[in-house]
């Protein structure tokens, strides 16, 4: 399956240094414009043309090259803008809700879970590893513990599977064969693609733990502050449904495999690339029928949007930043609903806590 | 629902000289105006109507005057208690304020000022803003350099500024290995090259030193993935560039950011990451390290690196370096939900989160004298929202570190012209009750002079006898005079956001 990557980026003016900082007099609002004009006149009257000139000097235009590669397979990944830089400005609209957002919590620092850490310290078989634990994968249903590797962009995974104490009724339980040990390859080869950011398949190393803004919004240009449509998934952008669904598919399809790396995640996929140029997924009717309900819903959406049969994307119903799927309740009842809901009661047909997929183990 | 403060004020026909509710600097979500803040605003309005009428001037004119400013503080005392040094006569007699607080009494050196590289800060076009029915444009010009000059130098008593960094790093070379210059180096919304350029431009115009600048380079900005350690050659190249070519005067570190994609933040006491940087910086002759501490919600996952605990070892191990803890390490600002949580502020002790840790460093190490407490945003916002906490903040900073180790910063132009923050400090005093209960000393004019500028001048090596005395006669002062003679006046607009329903 191949899809055309979004090529909606048009050449745009690119201001020279100081231009934006000093502002173009053509774009200044009334009052500020007047102030700057007066300021410039004052400078000129004092024989200081240099500064007054700045106001009008920087209106030169240049053009950014149009460049949306079809894939980054086995290529270097971009030097993207990191989430901490994004949040310097976006804390107002994103920052306050993001710490508790499910997409942020795909990996949790252990220092944020003091109760869990206390349980680990108390457990005789886990205690020796407690001081090394840096991150936790999963949460209530099942957890895996991680420590930092000495290698760049790598984490070690503890062989134990843990179910933490729930509301004081059930003590922490551990599955796995003791003595436990740190595995050095499992995380990189199984989990990193979706639990970390910018994994380079060639080295299986990532650039940031957890899902950074880049994972879904791509390599963001700072000019997006003046033109939000430069950012993928921006409301002002009009990308094809298939392209949008691919962004979600990079992680939410758990049955895929890279043809080039053999890993269960795409080879150096960057938002805007053609995911399916490398990532092989069985979207046959048989595969869909065999998939558990939630998986089937995802695969079906990906398939239809990719083939141009459906314009509604995952985001039509799922608001990621607000962690809300409420909009899907507005959809008129149809056969798709019954993948997950009983036709009469509309209750779920499956246990929310059941394992999604054997590969992920939660 | 948020609107720009100036827009709300103009809609209401009321432009308070002092924000009467927290104005978001976009580093937090603005909280609703409290009942007391509403009462404060109401009193300012009522007094302004009555006094402007009796003086025969418009209310707007009145509120822009020193009488308007005095009225705001006077009304605050009526609502929140006698926190500010203001007499009623100052509210209707301009000469009274001018006599009490003569312009130029203090040398004001603001070490935390910002503008942006032509970037509107973005959220005006957010969906939820549109949903509120507001048709807002991205006013990048409000955050521009010309407006920065106007707000900082013409509309306030600020004499000298440090253009202060924000997270971001420069890219040194393109893929072909060619050295990049100017905007091609990228570096975020206020990169080092731009701060340097603005500093040079301002000083050239002024004919003296009116601006200093910081450099954003930090230990995790250039990373050797093979060795999983800083790419020291690249890092040192950039350091040399920022010091020698850009002429920066301090580093500005955000330990809780990772623009170099190293995979982590860093601690200032990390001997493998930070210490080589210190040594290189010493070699280059730059010994001032400004670090964002507190306001930890600015990070996706690395907020804990904004904790001030790492300053202790770093400062002890490097007594020849100066460390300036920005925001006085106050963990949360007004507007963040946690600001009102009981674990943030303990009225019994006057301690608040993370700031107390900064104080403890000095208590454990009385001999330490190379850590300074900067008060940007922390002083201004608590002055509005929680004057008692504001008194604890300044009281503890002075009590613990000494008045000669508290440094003036405002975070403007995020806050518009800093004149209201300057006026607040001029009138600031710690109550008798708090002095008695917590052992704070009254803040003297000598203390304020140090805080406003003399401390920063010492840290940055500004010559009080030479540089400061040159200000009144330099070109920037001439421009300021010309600006005022031609009718220029301070705009009460704060470039931040407030809730529309308030």
Quick take:
The complex is a heterodimer of chains A (362) and B (502). Chain A is α+β, with helices and mostly antiparallel strands.
Q: Can you put this structure into words, describing what you see?
A:
- The complex is a heterodimer of chains A (362) and B (502).
- By secondary structure, chain A is α+β, with helices and mostly antiparallel strands.
- Helices cover 29% and strands 9% of the residues of chain A.
- Chain A is built from 12 helices and 11 strands.
- In chain A, the strands form 4 sheets. In chain A, strands 1-2-3-4-7 form a 5-stranded antiparallel β-sheet, covered by helices on one side. In chain A, strands 5-6 form a two-stranded antiparallel sheet.
- In chain A, helix 2 (30-45) runs antiparallel to helix 3 (49-57).
- The two termini of chain A are 28 Å apart.
- The model of chain A is unreliable at 1-69 (pLDDT under 50).
- By secondary structure, chain B is α/β, with parallel strands linked by helices.
- Chain B has 2 domains: 2-103 and 481-499, no CATH class; 146-172 and 186-479, Alpha-Beta Barrel (TIM Barrel), CATH 3.20.20.140.
- Helices cover 40% and strands 10% of the residues of chain B.
- Chain B contains 19 helices and 14 strands.
- In chain B, the strands form 4 sheets. An 8-stranded parallel β-sheet of chain B has the order 2-3-4-7-8-9-12-13, sandwiched between helices.
- The radius of gyration of chain B is 22 Å and the shape is globular.
- The relative contact order of chain B is 0.16.
- The chains are: A alpha+beta (362), B alpha/beta (502).
- Chains A and B meet through helix 1, helix 2, helix 3, helix 4 and strand 9 of A and helix 7, helix 8 and helix 19 of B.
Offer a few descriptive terms:
heterodimer; A: 362 residues; alpha+beta; 5-stranded antiparallel beta sheet; two-stranded antiparallel ribbon; 11 strands; B: 502 residues; alpha/beta; TIM Barrel; 8-stranded parallel beta sheet; 10% strand; globular
